Each structure stands twice: as structure tokens, then as C-alpha cells.
Task: inverse folding
């Protein structure tokens, strides 16, 4: 895919991506977008939680600029048809269609893995993300009222889902 004369590639994460993905997390997951900022204490800690091939990464002309990660929401066998996802795109690359492409590829990837549902959590104050997820076909499944105290106010946590078997 060409992206303003640039080539966008979506691929599985590799060991070499760790530091770049950690840097993206530090830029994207702030008080505005998460209950608390994400700052990995070490590369080893990041790799323990996000091992290679647990994310699809977006690469523009060889530069990793975003990702969508997958994990099982629980360890319960009856819940293994669901992936919980999280997505981040470097601020310098946002609003170029990279997030949309990542989610499209994530849906394909999850279906190939036999999954029937993708779910995610988003803060009620993150209106841009809420609109983005709705545009990508996600629906609100539930809301945890006043779940977090952020910047001197209570914020709801919204659970959203995309059903792959529709």
C-alpha cells in the first residue's frame, strides 16, 4: 500500500522492534489516553509482556510507527475465542490511515487464528479513539462508571467489541 508516496507494511513483531514499540507506548499512553502512562521499566519486562509475534506492527519505509497487540483476556478455555487488543500509532504518523489498516489486518489475523471476537477498553474522555473504533465497526458492550480518577475527575472505562463472525 502506498501512503503519500510511502510504503506501508504490516508484519508480526520481532525482537528487534522492542525498543521502538516501548518508545511508541511512552508517547501514546499518557494521562489523556490511559489510566496511567505506560513506561516499561526494562526491555526484558516489555518482552515478557509483549513477546515477539504477539503484535502486528506497521512499518512505513522501514520505520516502525504503530502496532496492534493481542492477548487472551483470561486463562479460561471457554474464553479462548476472544482476543483483547490494544493499538497505538506514533503521533507523527497518526491520521494517515495506519490505525485503520492495522485494525483491518488484526481482524484478518484473528479470524485466521479462529477467533470470533476482538475486545478493547477505552477511556470515555478519549473521544477521538471512541470515534475511530466506531468507524472501524466496534460497538460499545459495557461501561464501568467512574472507574478511574484522572486529572481531577472520574472517567468511565468503555468496553468495545468487534464480532468477527458477523
Result:
Amino acid at each position: 500500500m502506498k501512503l503519500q508516496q510511502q510504503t506501508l507494511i504490516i508484519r508480526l513483531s520481532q525482537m528487534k522492534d522492542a525498543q521502538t514499540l516501548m518508545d511508541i507506548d511512552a508517547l501514546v499512553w499518557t494521562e489523556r489516553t490511559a489510566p496511567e502512562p505506560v513506561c516499561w521499566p526494562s526491555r526484558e519486562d516489555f518482552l515478557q509482556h509483549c513477546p515477539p509475534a504477539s503484535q502486528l506492527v506497521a512499518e512505513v519505509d522501514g520505520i516502525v510507527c504503530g502496532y496492534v497487540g493481542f492477548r487472551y483476556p483470561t486463562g479460561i478455555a471457554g474464553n479462548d475465542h476472544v482476543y483483547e487488543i490494544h493499538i497505538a500509532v506514533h503521533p507523527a504518523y497518526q491520521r494517515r490511515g495506519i490505525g485503520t489498516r492495522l485494525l483491518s489486518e488484526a481482524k484478518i489475523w484473528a479470524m485466521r487464528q479462529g477467533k470470533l471476537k476482538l475486545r478493547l477498553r477505552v477511556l470515555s474522555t478519549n473521544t477521538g479513539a471512541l470515534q475511530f473504533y466506531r468507524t472501524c465497526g466496534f460497538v460499545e458492550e459495557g461501561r464501568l462508571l467512574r472507574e478511574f480518577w484522572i486529572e481531577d475527575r472520574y472517567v468511565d472505562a468503555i468496553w468495545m467489541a468487534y464480532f468477527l463472525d458477523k
